[in-house]
């Protein structure tokens, strides 16, 4: 009989190594897993619930919000506020973060959470996998209102990061800096159960993931690298396979399991890259590095970027170490 270890049991076991732990992080992860279960339920009956299609507003990104963007954002915000372990919440769907140290709020905690409540919105109506991404910091200041040093923390200072993929199954993957572990939701018992212990990303791979329609907008280095991917050379497993889902979480998770590389380089339309640093690139970069992979802008590690504003964007090249190294070699040469 396969023994079941739930997410909560796993965290308690992990925290046993920290006698001073007071269960705050356990409660924070419980809040996140509660919201993920609620989003899972809606995603899995999307066609039957009034949850498909556009919400009717544009968000701060200038994107048309989907109903599920707003649904997911509401439930993650509620769960994190009510969980009582946070002092700051920031979402892709809100122009400004919510500073819980200002004014009367639920019980205040020490965690700052940046999240993308629903990643891959363009795929919702076609029943393609979507996700949620979260990034967790501890406040630097001890009490009172948050200060600029709290917001200036680079990705290297995350205390935890994770994502949920709502696909053929719903899987929550996270790290606290001691490796990466994955948990699959068993809807029959309503628990995330350990399914991918000590997850590592293969050092090499033969899958590349990029929106090729942007080819003419890429730098010559990226164009040369993509030509390299297509050359016929059985000794280096080329041509590579091209896979592009259009949901970052789904493309990233595939590469975590099979090995591979995902690229969203700078384009004419997005000169600084399309993907957002604080709630897409930093959390996935933390996971990638903890799993033995790499994440770079092409010129520097994602985790070393100094954050300047909440919704700032960055180019992202992330995945198997040897494949990311090859892209950096092309960028260095061209
Ligand atoms: P979101 O749905 O949270 O706005 O993110 C969409 C992102 C990411 O999920 C995906 O990798 C990328 O947009 C796809 O962009 P293109 O459609 O330009 O390829
Ligand atoms: Mn969006
Ligand atoms: Mn996203
Ligand atoms: Mn989103």
Automatic annotation (TrEMBL):
What name does this protein carry?
A: Fructose-1,6-bisphosphatase class 1
What are the binding positions for Mg(2+) 1 in this chain?
92, 116, 118
Its localization reads: Cytoplasm
Q: What is its EC number?
A: 3.1.3.11
The alphabetized UniProt keywords are: Carbohydrate metabolism, Cytoplasm, Hydrolase, Magnesium, Metal-binding
Family in the record? Belongs to the FBPase class 1 family.
Q: Name one GO molecular function term.
A: fructose 1,6-bisphosphate 1-phosphatase activity
Recorded catalytic reaction(s): these are: beta-D-fructose 1,6-bisphosphate + H2O = beta-D-fructose 6-phosphate + phosphate
Q: What sort of enzyme, by top EC class, is this?
A: hydrolase
Q: Describe how the cofactor binds.
A: Binds 2 magnesium ions per subunit.
Q: Name one GO cellular component term.
A: cytosol
**Which Pfam families does this UniProt record tie to the protein?**
FBPase, FBPase_C
List, for all copies, the residue spans of the domain called Fructose-1-6-bisphosphatase class I N-terminal: 6-197
Q: How does it assemble?
A: Homotetramer.
Source organism of this protein record = Sphingobacterium zhuxiongii
Query: Where, in this chain's numbering, is substrate bound?
Result: 119-122, 211, 244, 274
Where do the Fructose-1-6-bisphosphatase class 1 C-terminal domain residues begin and end? 201-331
Q: Which cofactor does it need?
A: Mg(2+)
Q: In which pathway does it act?
A: Carbohydrate biosynthesis
Q: Which domain of life is it from?
A: Bacteria
The biological process GO terms on file are: fructose 1,6-bisphosphate metabolic process; fructose 6-phosphate metabolic process; fructose metabolic process; gluconeogenesis; sucrose biosynthetic process
Where does this protein hold Mg(2+) 2? 116, 119, 280
């Amino acid at each position: 009989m396969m023994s079941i270890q739930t997410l909560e049991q796993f965290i308690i076991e992990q925290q046993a190594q920290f006698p001073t732990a007071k269960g705050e992080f356990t409660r924070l992860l419980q809040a996140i897993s509660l919201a993920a279960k609620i989003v899972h339920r809606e995603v899995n009956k999307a066609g039957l619930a009034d949850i498909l299609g556009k919400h009717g507003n544009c968000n701060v990104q200038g994107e048309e919000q989907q109903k599920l963007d707003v649904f997911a954002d509401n439930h993650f915000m509620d769960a994190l506020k009510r969980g009582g372990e946070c002092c700051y919440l920031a979402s892709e769907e809100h122009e400004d973060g919510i500073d819980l140290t200002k004014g009367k709020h639920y019980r205040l905690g020490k965690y700052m959470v940046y999240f993308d409540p629903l990643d891959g919105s363009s795929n919702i109506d076609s029943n393609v996998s979507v996700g949620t991404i979260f990034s967790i910091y501890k406040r630097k200041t001890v009490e009172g209102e948050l200060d600029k040093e709290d917001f200036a923390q680079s990705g290297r200072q995350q205390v935890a990061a994770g994502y949920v993929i709502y696909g053929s199954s719903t899987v929550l993957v996270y790290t606290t800096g001691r490796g990466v572990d994955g948990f699959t939701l068993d809807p029959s018992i309503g628990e995330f159960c350990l399914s991918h212990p000590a997850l590592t990303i293969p050092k090499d791979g033969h899958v590349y993931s990029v929106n090729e329609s942007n080819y003419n907008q890429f730098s010559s280095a990226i164009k040369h690298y993509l030509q390299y991917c297509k050359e016929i050379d059985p000794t280096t497993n080329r041509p590579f396979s091209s896979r592009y889902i259009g949901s970052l979480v789904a493309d990233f998770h595939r590469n975590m399991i099979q090995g591979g590389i995902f690229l969203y380089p700078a384009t004419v339309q997005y000169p600084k890259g399309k993907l957002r640093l604080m709630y897409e690139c930093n959390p996935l970069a933390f996971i990638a590095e903890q799993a033995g992979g790499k994440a770079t802008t092409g010129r520097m590690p994602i985790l070393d970027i100094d954050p300047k504003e909440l919704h700032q964007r960055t180019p992202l090249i992330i995945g198997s170490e040897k494949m990311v190294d090859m892209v950096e070699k092309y960028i260095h040469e061209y």
